[in-house]
Amino acid sequence: MDSAQQDTIQVSQVWDAPVRLFHWINFVSVISLFFMGFIMLYKKELGISSLEAKIALKQVHVIIGYVFVVNLLIRLLWAFVGNRYARWSAIFPYRGLLADIRQYVHALRQGRPQPYLGHNPLGRLAVMFLLLLLITMSASGLLRAGTDIYFPPFGSWVQGYLAADQVPPSSLKPYDETGVDPQKLKQVKAFKSPIGKVHLYTAYLLLGLLILHITAVILADKREGGAIISAMFTGRKYLSGKPLDAGKPD
What we know:
CATH topology: Fumarate Reductase Cytochrome B subunit
Largest sheet: 2 strands, antiparallel
Number of strands: 2
Radius of gyration: 23 Å
Oligomer: single chain
Order of helices and strands: HEHHHHHHHE
Distance between the termini: 33 Å
């Protein structure tokens, strides 16, 4: 890059520390959850057959899930107080978003990528869907944690509901029908089965969208510049030309 080109590069601090921290904690926890989920789905093929091992796998999965949920909750709260690129106003859809997406895609096809400090219109759309999937994963995962192995926040309530007359709820054990009201057990199973399917298929959607998201980020970094990938470590973007979202109030 010659000196004239270097002079046109503008360095901007975009992603604040909490957003960057959320990104990498979320990445590690999601990968870990996928790994544990894979083991649980194929435990028979992997030679895992004991009830103790099944419960232990779920416990590890749920503990990682707590990290995932708490991290997500902090990010959702930070969207109220973070910088302009972290806030809900940078995530929620707005009037004209579809038109901006068409304009952005047209510019890409013309070889004239439009620079953005925050998320470009396609990236913004991806972030919205990612957050919806993450929230769905959190809610369904917490419900299954309560109904499967009686973990908080719903586990004690489930135990209290399932316990037969004169049976202390705390005495109920995961996957053990001793002391359980049979009729209520059927009701809980009927409730948790669709929740489990939602959790599973949301995980598949999330995995697909993450692969698409990572691919798009790599391509955008090559075509548009801006050091998009390194910005999630440093918070800084390097752009030539005036970004389309520059100069707007926080």
